[in-house]
Write a structure and sequence with these properties.
With 162 residues, the protein is mainly alpha-helical. It has one domain: dinb family like domain (Four Helix Bundle (Hemerythrin (Met), subunit A)). 57% of the residues lie in helices and 0% in strands. The chain is built from six helices and no strands. Helix 1 packs parallel to helix 6. The longest helix is centred in the C-terminal third of the chain and has 25 residues.
Length: 162
Amino acid sequence: MSDIMAKDLREQYRKTFSTVRKIVETFPEERWREPHGDIYYIPCRIAYHIALVIDRFIADGYKDRDFQAKVPYGNWAEAKAEALPDRAEFLAYYDGIIARAEKVLADISDEALKAPLPQEISFFAESLIGLHMCMMREISDHTGELNKMLVDNGLEDVWVYK
């Protein structure tokens, strides 16, 4: 039996993770910690939020009851730009998260995607595939914010399609 859905999911995540990384690499260091419009839209904060979403819900961090207490830069929504990592530090942190996520994704099968979610995260969806569709939407939403910030800085937006 083929695991075509699981394979497609892994491939789409690979492209999504690569898009986020490329955006961060492209972002001007001098604007990395500056608000773009209002205090919420700070590139380092939005990128950190994406990383936490991946770590918690794709790399199975939600299984650790102390997950939030262990995040290195605190709550993303309250994080001050100066307390967040520069681009190079962020990319090292992000690469570790992506490695954990890819390890979890490698073990997912089409059958597993049909499984109901554990109670603690069942507010997202009923099944594992539903969770991953929600996470893809979440990451895409914030990737769009970062891309808009790139455009506002006179750069081209980033979308990895291969």
